[in-house]
Structure formats: structure tokens, C-alpha cells
Design a protein that fits this description.
transmembrane helix; F420-dependent oxidoreductase; transmembrane
Length: about 220
């Protein structure tokens, strides 16, 4: 059941990523109609979106779990799985609250957007809640899971300061100023940490229920 559930998530996430990459390669929805970037820059920007990174983590973790009868035995695997589940949850929440009103898409662009921001988050969280794996994540893993998002944020702000491109409007320090952007980042980081610790605690509760003897 666990492996089949994560296989579904892996396939949907992979299809979403391939579709979005193909659309970017073809020049769809580049978010800059005045001076659209070349193909190389479009591809570089594609991999700079947290949405893409979180979907890549979900796809990788789900393929790994689907292929293994004993997943998440290494700390790196557990940390990346926490990042996958929490990151894709943050992706869905931020998209719904901050980004959805800004988008006007149709056709294949609309489908790619909904797969990446709605279908994969819902399926990934549902798979984690329903089929696990259970009882593998430790408190120390949650602490290490914060490192990749912080590295991504530092890279994004540094690259934006040099190129003027920010993947999300609320990170645009040129428009909003660094105090506002950093305050937003702190809020998102707090959400990430709260979700990560909450998920770790819920994981332990669910693990005890699974292992508890039935009367």
C-alpha cells in the first residue's frame, strides 16, 4: 500500500515537472512580456523556483519510497523527506494565499500550474498521512531540514540583487525593500518550522497508533 501510494505521487509530480519544463523550454508564461529572457536564462530561472525544488524533492522521495521496502534509513533521506513534505505544503499554502490572485493562465500552462501547486501538494500530504512511512523522522532531522530552504533563500536574494530577477513578487527587494522582504521571509520560515515540528510530532503519534496492539 505504501509503495503504491507513493508511486502515484511520484508519477504525478514527474509529469507536472516535465510538462512545466517543456512549457518553459517553449517560452510559455515567462512572466516578462516586455523583455522575455532567452532559453538558457529561462531554464536557469525554472530551477530557481521553490515550487520546482519542492516538487523535485517530492518526486525523488516518492520514487525512492516506491522502490524500497525499507525507506528513509539514512539521515540525508529523512531530512530530504521532511523538506519534501513540508516544502510542498508551504508551496501550496503560499500559492493559495499570495500568488493565486496574480496568475491568469490557460491551456497547458493552467494544467501545469494546478498540478504543481494543487495536485502534488494534496497527494503528497495525503500519502504521508495515510501510508507513511511512520516513525522514521527524528527531532534532529527537523533541524537539518531548515538548511536547504535557507540556502535557497540566500541564493535567490543574492541572484536577484545582481540580475534584478526574483522568482516571486514578495521577494522583490527592489520593489519592497529588504526590511519588508526579510520580514516576509521570517514569516515563511516560521511557517516552515511550525509545519516541520508539527509533522514530526504527528508522525510520532501516528507511529504509536500503528504499533499499538489491538484489543
Amino acid at each position: 500500500m505504501q509503495r503504491r501510494g507513493h508511486l502515484v505521487v511520484a508519477v504525478v509530480a514527474s509529469v507536472a515537472l516535465v510538462l512545466q519544463f517543456w512549457l518553459v523550454w517553449q517560452g510559455h508564461a515567462v512572466l516578462d512580456d516586455v523583455d522575455p529572457p532567452g532559453r538558457g536564462e529561462r531554464v536557469l530561472r525554472f530551477f530557481g523556483y521553490f515550487t520546482i525544488l519542492s516538487n523535485l524533492l517530492v518526486a525523488g522521495a516518492s520514487w525512492s519510497i516506491a522502490a524500497s521496502s525499507d525507506p528513509l534509513t539514512s539521515r540525508l533521506g529523512r531530512v530530504l523527506y521532511v523538506d519534501a513534505v513540508v516544502g510542498i505544503t508551504v508551496t501550496g499554502i503560499v500559492h493559495w494565499v499570495l500568488l493565486r490572485p496574480l496568475l491568469s493562465l490557460d491551456g497547458a500552462d493552467w494544467w501545469a500550474d494546478k498540478l504543481l501547486h494543487v495536485a502534488v501538494p494534496v497527494l503528497a500530504v495525503a500519502a504521508w498521512l495515510v501510508v507513511g512511512p511512520r516513525g522514521r523522522v527524528r527531532a534532529a532531522d527537523v533541524g537539518w531540514a531548515v538548511v536547504p530552504p535557507v540556502v535557497w533563500l540566500g541564493y535567490t536574494l543574492a541572484r536577484g540583487a545582481v540580475t534584478g530577477f526574483y522568482p516571486y513578487p514578495f521577494l522583490n527587494a527592489d520593489n519592497h525593500g529588504y526590511p519588508t522582504v526579510l520580514a516576509t521571509c521570517v514569516g515563511v520560515a516560521a511557517l516552515f518550522l511550525a509545519l516541520a515540528f508539527g509533522a514530526s510530532r504527528l508522525d510520532r503519534v501516528l507511529a504509536r497508533r500503528v504499533s499499538a496492539p489491538r484489543s
